[in-house]
Model the fold of this input.
Amino acid sequence: MRSHLYYAMLLTFLASLIVGPPVIYYLRRFKLGQHVRNDGPQRHLKKTGTPTLGGMIFLFSLLVISLFLAPRTLNYYLMIMVTVGNGAIGLADDLVKFIHKRPLGLKARNKLLGQVILAVILSIFLWGTGHSTVISFPLVDFSINLGPLYPFFVMFIIIGFSNAVNLTDGLDGLAAGTAVISLLAYFFIAFSMGLTDTAFFCAALAGACFGFLIYNLHPAKIF
Done:
């Protein structure tokens, strides 16, 4: 089973490597590039025009490999739903930048609203399918049943993780690189706990992000 997970990681990595060049080419051709803020570091101004929408690369790789190899479980579908949902918010953010030709995309409250809606939808699915509301802390052998507070916990996790990635970003390869490290850690944790669907998701997304990282390292060819 572990070899199957490594295989998924390798395939998504290769898929991102293959998809990257044509995506970068067409984004440059249609001038879908980054608008850099004038009040930032002057050295960042040379990044103006660098293609953005890079999330399409690793999201496409993840979805294609998932279509053929991923476990057919509700948990996996929910993870894909949240990933695609956050990707849609990111796409909308980039489209606003292109349309208005400005470095700032969606307003913070609009991004937050999208994340809240996504979290509420996920909470409804989890609640409706009888998902456990118990949160466990294995290292200290402690658990707590959140009960009706569980949806708020889900909301905190989704919004917190999404914005943590946004806050981490700022240097070429930083967000993608730290994401790969985090995903690999979650992969080994999930595998050790027997959570095959979660382990597959983490492995596949880590591979896809690593493939994207090749084009996102300094000097970044795509954001």
Remarks:
- The chain has one domain: 2-130+143-216.
- The longest strand covers residues 134-137.
